[in-house]
Specification:
It contains 13 helices and 19 strands. By secondary structure, the chain is α+β, with helices and mostly antiparallel strands. The strands form six sheets. Strands 1-12-11-8-7-2-4 form a seven-stranded mixed beta sheet, with helices on both faces. It binds pyridoxal-5'-phosphate.
Length: 371
């Protein structure tokens, strides 16, 4: 096998006209947040049907900004799923609050809604439900629970642009939704993210906080908050904006490939395939499966790599990671058994718009033969 035959876990969908859009910005000399960022914000707001979209420098920056805008900090608790990309919990630590982990539903890899209520205390200020791998969590029920308890919802839809529950887009249910444009997402700006909300005052605050605390008052630039520099550049905005028109077709194609994986991989009982509830449209950021626990996941990944297939584990069991384990003394295997197993035995396999149907069949065959 030559390097050319290697099938990577992810290849971003960047076409010549996307590159041309970036070059045009570079040639204009206007590089930082400007008209292209505004255009992206307006297009995302229109696509999702929300009043405001605020582009930022990453999905992590967007979650962080939301917590700061809500004034969440020392002494507060924020509920997060035990299985996610680690950024979901890191941002809570970074504002000085405590992440309170809740185990996941093993069928969907999303936070188990039935375990959330018992995690709520008088210190709970927010829940960050994640739409893991692009599948909506039980967001309606979680929002109802939050409303009763006067808790904010920051939807971590980093992987879920274009996913829906009962036809409504993920990221548009809570007080604010957060998306990432990292290269493993369907459309990308390299690094980048965006926040969406219908709350005018929150949007105003987020815009001020992302840009050094600046607000224009009576035509004058005033520094009204201690803000960040979390701006997206105009060339990054041009890149992702140019891909946005293809988002729906990218998701539909990924769904077609996912269905081939379902057909091919259901031939073995040593793999647990993801479940997609009828009322949810998966955006298929990742195809994540769980291997039988007798299989050594890391050896399996190495073995697939040698055969030309790039895979990786899907997400972390966050309380089992050194920082959280040492700080809070978790015993994840007992406290978060589903998250622990999903981390230890889970792998994400290639799924992207440049992948061919024959490659999906080859990957499936290689996986089955390697078990
Ligand atoms: C669930 C989740 N939240 C947050 C992030 C952070 O996004 P970014 O890499 O754009 O900072 C990611 C990134 O992959 C993610 O998967």
């Amino acid at each position: 096998m030559s390097n050319l035959d290697f099938i990577p876990l992810m290849v971003p969908d960047i076409q010549q006209h996307d590159i041309d859009a970036v070059v045009a910005v570079l040639q204009s000399g206007m590089l930082i947040q400007g008209s292209k960022v505004e255009e992206l914000e307006s297009n995302i707001a229109q696509y999702l049907g929300v009043r405001h979209a605020i582009a930022v420098s990453s999905g992590t920056a967007s979650l962080h900004l939301a917590l700061v805008a809500f004034g969440i900090g020392r002494g507060d608790e924020v509920i997060v799923p035990a299985f996610s990309y680690i950024a979901t919990a890191n941002v809570v630590e970074l504002v000085g609050a405590k992440p309170v982990f809740v185990d996941i539903d093993f069928n969907t890899f999303n936070i188990d809604k039935n375990l959330i209520e018992r995690a709520i205390t008088i210190k709970t200020k927010a829940i960050i439900p994640v739409h893991e791998f692009g599948l909506a969590c039980d967001i309606r029920e979680i929002c109802e629970l939050a409303k009763i308890n006067n808790i904010k919802i920051i939807e971590d839809a980093a992987c879920a642009l274009g996913a829906t529950e009962n036809g409504k887009f993920t990221g548009t249910f809570g007080n604010v939704g957060s998306f990432s444009f990292h290269p493993r997402k369907a459309i990308t700006s390299g690094e980048g993210g965006i926040l969406v909300t219908d709350d005018d005052e929150l949007a105003r605050k987020l815009r001020i906080l992302r840009n050094h605390g600046i607000e224009i008052r009576d035509g004058k630039m005033e520094f009204v908050e201690a803000g960040f520099n979390y701006r997206l550049t105009d060339f990054q905005a041009a890149l992702v904006n140019s891909q946005l028109g293809r988002l729906e077709s990218i998701i539909n194609y990924k769904e077609k490939l996912a269905n081939i994986y379902f057909d091919e991989l259901s031939q073995t009982n040593k793999i647990i395939l993801p479940k997609v509830p009828q009322n949810k449209r998966h955006s298929w950021q990742s195809f994540h499966l769980v291997l039988d626990s007798i299989i050594n996941r890391n050896e399996f990944i190495d073995n697939l790599r040698k055969q030309g297939v790039g895979t990786n584990y899907g997400a972390q069991c966050i309380p089992a990671m050194i920082y959280y384990k040492n700080k809070y003394h978790y015993h994840s295997e007992k406290e978060f058994p589903n998250a622990f197993k999903a981390y230890l035995c889970g792998i994400a396999i290639p799924l992207y718009s440049r992948l061919k149907e024959e490659q999906v069949k080859f990957i499936s065959k290689t996986i089955i033969q390697s078990i």
